[in-house]
Every structure is written in C-alpha cells, then in structure tokens.
C-alpha cells in the first residue's frame, strides 16, 4: 500500500482549474520529486494534501489508506504530514528553539514537555543548527539558516511524510549542495519526502521518482531521467520547435 494516495484531486478558483483531476501515489521510503512550469498546480497540490489553507473541491487524499481530505490541518499534521513553504516562514520574534518547539507541539499533542523539547533540539541538530543558535531570534538568521529552521520546525513534528516546497530557491550553489545533504539525511532517518523544485540538479540528485505537472494535470511520471527526456515534458518547458525558414 502506498503511504500517500491522491485520487482525482481538483481545486478551482473561479474559472481557473489550478489542480484538475490529479491522481498519484507516493511509496513509503521514497523521495518523490514534482516539477512543472510556473502555474502548473504544484504548490496548490501540497495545499490540498495538508489542508493549509484549503482542501480539494473534489477527490480523495489518503494517508496509509485513511481518507484525510476533510480533516482540519492540525489533525492532518497529527496523522503524520508536515510541510515547508516556498518562502522562508518562521516566527521572527521567537528564538530558533522556540520555533522548533512550535512544530513539536503543533496541535497540542505533546505540549511543551520534555519529549517535545527533545524533539525540537533533535530536529535542529538534524539540519545543522548548533545549540549556540538556539537563543537567537529567527528574524536575525540568514536566508539559508531560515530555510534550515523551517525544515527543522517541520521535522520536529516527527512526520511520516514531509512535503518540501522549493527548498533550493534563493540559495547559492554551496548552500544547495548542503541542502541536498540535509534532505538525504532526513530521508535516511525513515521519512518519506515529496519535493517541489525548479532546480534540475537538485531534483535529479534526490528523486527516486519524478512527476511533471502541467495545467493542473499529471503530464508525465516515472524515473527522473526518463521523465526529463519525455518529448511532452520538453515541449511543456521549451515550447514546440518551429521548423527553420
């Protein structure tokens, strides 16, 4: 059984069909990439899975066979799904440790107990944020550190499934390489990962399986190398080549 199953999921905003009948599955232990042109429905699909800020208009989302598409966001998180966002998202007036503790206590499942504090500290260590950074305010961090903090806050929730939305955006090449190592470490710890990314080297380095969305639909799915070489995918990104005059 797949860890995550999405069946005929759809979301429209007026006449715009942001997600239009997407069906896909994510096997446990896999790092699955999702790519596609701007506006293809990638982030909206993450929203439908997590309920943040909305669920699907139609379709089913199942985690370990259990339908979750009508649950509130905190119950979906408690079921085992965490996510990050395209932009660095943190509580800038809280410390690094307090931000991670928000993830560890989201939904009130552990309160600010010793196990929650341990989960927060472990998550920060997993992404390379040393104890010396714990008292710093999140708003004082660099872009890369803020991305690491957002990742740690999600990991502190101890998810089964982690959804990463463009984790490499805005990073330098060395920071991208460091991020690849961090995500590989999280995957090695047993967390299943789905990631959206435009940086091709990032996707190819991490993904076991790749899905391409276009116009809110699945355009191609399979091994990363076969998908990238698919003529439909090349056309979606580059357009149809016109014959020479």
What topology emerges from the helices and strands here?
Layout: E1 4-13, E2 16-26, E3 31-35, H1 42-50, E4 58-63, E5 66-67, H2 73-79, E6 81-83, H3 96-105, H4 114-126, H5 143-155, E7 161-165, H6 173-188, E8 192-196, H7 200-206, E9 209-214, E10 217-222, H8 224-228, H9 231-238
Parallel strand pairs: 3-8, 3-9, 6-7, 7-8
Antiparallel strand pairs: 1-2, 1-4, 4-5, 9-10
Describe this structure in words.
The protein has nine helices and ten strands. By secondary structure, it is α/β, with parallel strands linked by helices. The strands form two sheets. A six-stranded mixed β-sheet has the order 6-7-8-3-9-10, sandwiched between helices. α4 (114-126) crosses α5 (143-155). It is globular. Keywords: ATP-binding, Nucleotide-binding, Transport.
List keywords for this structure.
245 residues; 24% strand; L-phenylalanine transmembrane transporter activity; four-stranded antiparallel beta sheet; 9 helices; six-stranded mixed beta sheet
Q: Which stretches of 5+ consecutive residues score pLDDT under 50?
A: none
> Looking across the biggest beta sheet, what order are the strands in?
6-7-8-3-9-10
Helical proportion, percent range: 25-40%
- The 3D shape can be described as globular
* SSE string: EEEHEEHEHHHEHEHEEHH
Our Rg estimate from Cα atoms comes to: 18 Å
Q: Strand tally, please?
A: 10
Please give a quick description of this structure.
This protein is of the alpha/beta class and 245 residues long. 36% of the residues lie in helices and 24% in strands.
